[in-house]
Amino acid sequence: MARQKSTSASALFAQAPSPQVSVSEDSQSRYLHLGTPWVQGAMSMKDPLALDL
């Protein structure tokens, strides 16, 4: 039986295409999107270091 060559996680990550990054905002917050309309991160415009849920 031939042994299959294993692929490391870093090699798989290097082959994966990067998602399209986009930013949207309203009057209070700025939102990060990675290839989808779903929000991946948010920041307050008044306090960018504060957690914005």
How would you characterize the overall build of this protein?
- The chain is α+β, with helices and mostly antiparallel strands and 53 residues long.
- The protein has a domain at 18-44.
- It has one helix and three strands.
- It has one helix spanning 9-15, and strands at residues 21-25, 29-34, 39-44.
- The chain has a three-stranded antiparallel β-sheet, with no helix packed on it.
- The model has no long low-confidence stretch (mean pLDDT 85).
Q: Could you tell me the strand content as a percent range?
A: 25-35%
Query: Mind describing the biggest β-sheet?
Result: 3 strands, antiparallel
- Written as H for each helix and E for each strand, in order along the chain, the element string is HEEE
Helix-strand makeup class: alpha+beta
Overall form: elongated
Helix content: 10-25%
Cα distance, first to last residue? Answer: 53 Å
Provide the low-confidence segments as ranges.
none
Order of the strands making up the biggest sheet: 1-2-3
Total of DSSP H or I helical runs spanning 4+ residues: 1
Rg (CA only): 18 Å
Instruction: Provide mean pLDDT, rounded.
Output: 85
Number of strands: 3
List keywords for this structure.
alpha+beta; elongated; 3-stranded antiparallel beta sheet; 13% helix; 3 strands; 53 residues; 1 helix
